[in-house]
Design goal:
The chain is mainly alpha-helical. The structure holds zinc ion. Zinc ion binds next to helix 1 and helix 3.
Amino acid sequence: MRLSGISMLNCHQIEEFIDSYLDESLSWRRRALFRSHLLMCRECRSYIGAYKRTVALGKKVFDDPVGPPPDDVPEDLVRAIIRARDSAEK
Ligand SMILES: [Zn+2]
C-alpha cells in the first residue's frame, strides 16, 4: 500500500534525520514519515534506541558534572570532566 503524495523514508534517511527528530526540529510531515518508518523497520528502531541512550548519557554527564555519575560512565571520563570544570572556575 502506498499513501498518495507521500514517499516513505528509507533507512539512510532515518540516519540523516535522527538529530532533527530527537531535538524536535523536523516538520510534522517528516516526523510522521520518520515514525511510520520506525513502526515498520526493526533495525531503525534499535538504531534509534541506541542513539538515544548515547545522547542521554552524554547529556547526563555534561549537564551535571558534580552529581553522581551513572554506573556505566568510565571513571577516567568523569575525573577529566571534573578537572576541566574545576580549572574553568579558577
Ligand atoms: Zn529502517
